[in-house]
Amino acid sequence: MLYAGSMVCAVLRDVDPKTQTRRLVNRLAGFGPITEFGPSDTPGYAWHFRDRAMRWHDISHARLLECCPYGQAGDHLWIREAHAFSVCDPEGRHWSEDPENWDVIYRADSQQPNGGWRDAEGNVIEAPWRPSIHMPRWASRITLEITGVSVERLQDISEADARAEGARECDPVSGREVLLAGASQRGSFVLHFRGIWEQINGLASCDRQPVGMGRRVQEDQAMSLTVDVPGAAELLKIHPETVKKMIHKGELPAAQVGRAYVMMTKDVLDYIESAVIRDTAARMRRPSRSPKPRREVATP
Questions:
Q1: How far apart are CA 271 and CA 102, in angstroms?
Q2: What CA–CA distances, in Å, run from 229 to 32, 78, 126, 237, 254?
Q3: 3 state SS of 185
Q4: Confidence (pLDDT) at 277
Q5: Architecture of domain 226-285
Q6: Terminal-residue alpha carbon distance, the chain
Q7: Which residues in the chain show pLDDT less than 50?
Q8: With a threshold of 0.85, does the pTM exceed it?
Q9: What are the boundaries of each domain within the chain?
């Protein structure tokens, strides 16, 4: 999932961290891109929308939640953010071939204008910022767990939910972020959330896009450093017996404790990352099929 720098800082801060995130309902699992999403007037259904072929669909609220394209409760999301890579590989290899020798700097943390940090000798090393969409899995530092999914009008967000979205308290009149003290001097979290949303999605987008799909998330601090065979199978999306075969072949590092195998979660994620890079490179090298020659048909 893509996060802007301000939202990354909101997730990482110690006081009032961001625990909710909202996205427009413009895509559903099983339907692809959708338009004209809104409440349905068909009895027995809660929502309706048009698919890419402009056909109308009516859908129940429970079914809509099942079609959330970002996952369900218990699933994990890894955050992509703007970043840069240092050029420190001694053999000059690409970061995808040897990621351990590349340092990552995150734009949300950096004070340098173009992605920079100082080496051991005090020299400033610069590299261009890379958009968040190009962040590889191994460079991500934040993993979130979905704890719930809901659908609501964006304008119906409460002060508590706006605060959980990472918004700060704003003066209700000026809209500027302030620190107000006392129950009689409470500011507006919703006003700040509206400003954040329109900064990302465009002016007046809160009014143009009335319905959003929200997810309650928490920073996955509880994601264990180790996993057992069923846990590795869950991450790899394969059968546990296949995991055992991979362990016996030496494809996955594991230690046997009693009768159970224990693996480092990082090793399992590294295996997935390496497999994605390897398979993608293989597909890129695969020669494309030449078109079949057209057969000439003689006309009388």
A1: 18
A2: 34, 22, 42, 12, 10
A3: helix
A4: 80
A5: Orthogonal Bundle (1.10)
A6: 62
A7: 175, 178-185, 219-223
A8: no
A9: 5-78+142-219, 83-139, 226-285
